[in-house]
Specification:
single chain; about 280 residues; alpha+beta; seven-stranded antiparallel beta sheet; six-stranded antiparallel beta sheet; 13 strands; DUF1989; DUF1989 domain-containing protein
Length: about 280
């Protein structure tokens, strides 16, 4: 499918219109960058205080207190994970992938932050270490840890295939939140949101600009580590697509577990850390 309508007449000034230089939508020079030096000193003192194993094709929840670190770790084989984050004390505040993409990039890595939705709009977590930070962008335009995809879900799967599959990441995240909160899955579903695709290698095709996935470069021992800026509740799905090299929303791919590790640093080293408050803007009538 072409990304444009070839039947529409091309105007005489088409080249000039296309040649207009772009501008960055959200210049972020005014944003105070996180002090990675403080985080590095805190990281040196980390003590592991908990872990959660996410089974293949399933989802699990975990809690991370403010000022702690957490890692999503590849443990047995190449596996991608779909991550949701909420304010542990208020489910209405949750990860906002669209604004994170607009403020940072299509794919995130060390030093980038995961932002919460409106009206709070504040950093929920700062990426403190990424063992796949070397990957960058490949010849196809693919990168790792994207905030452009949504999550595989049973509704799109039915739309495209006509079948029902119950271990899509959306379904896994719904079940995990439902079990954690002790609420019906239908009550949990509205809280499940667009994800950070951890370890997933994605981009847009050069010709049709369609969202693509390819085999993840993740290997056992790799991890993505984040610093909790607020008290966090997380949910992670070990995607049924495995390394997403072929397909998802089925039992065809080889899948592996993921591990979430929680770490407590020497909290005195964070005495001057500017933990964020909710955004101060007040909506006017």
């Amino acid at each position: 499918m072409s990304p444009f309508n070839a039947n529409v007449p091309v105007p005489a000034d088409a080249a000039a219109r296309r040649a207009v230089k772009p501008v960055v939508c959200y210049p972020v020079e005014s944003l105070k960058a996180p002090d990675m030096g403080i985080l590095e000193r805190a990281r040196a003192t980390m003590e592991k205080v908990g872990e959660v194993i996410v089974p293949p094709r399933e989802g699990s929840t975990f809690e991370v207190p403010k000022g702690h670190f957490f890692r999503i770790v590849s443990v047995e084989g190449p596996q991608v994970g779909d991550l949701n984050l909420w304010n542990a004390n208020d489910l209405s505040e949750r990860f906002f992938s669209g604004k994170t993409r607009a403020l940072h990039a299509t794919h995130v890595t060390t030093g980038n932050r995961l932002w919460s939705n409106l009206p709070s709009l504040r950093p929920m977590a700062t990426i403190s270490h990424d063992t796949l930070g070397w990957y960058g962008f490949d010849e196809f335009g693919g990168g790792v840890h994207d905030v452009i995809g949504t999550r595989c879900d049973p509704y799109t799967n039915r739309l495209l295939s006509g079948g029902d599959y119950h271990h899509c990441c959306h379904s896994n995240l719904c079940r995990a939140l439902s079990q954690y909160k002790g609420i019906d899955i239908k009550a949990a579903e509205p809280h499940v949101h667009d994800v950070l695709n951890v370890f997933m290698c994605t981009g847009f095709t050069r010709d049709t600009q369609q969202y693509f996935m390819k085999a993840s470069p993740v290997r056992p021992g790799d991890f993505l580590e984040m610093f909790a800026e607020i008290d966090l509740l997380g949910a992670l799905s070990a995607c049924p697509g495995g390394d997403c090299s072929t397909s998802h929303s089925s039992d065809a791919a080889k899948c592996y577990p993921l591990k979430v590790e929680i770490y407590r640093p020497d909290m005195s080293l964070l005495a001057d850390w500017p933990f964020p408050e909710r955004n101060g803007y007040q909506l006017q009538v």
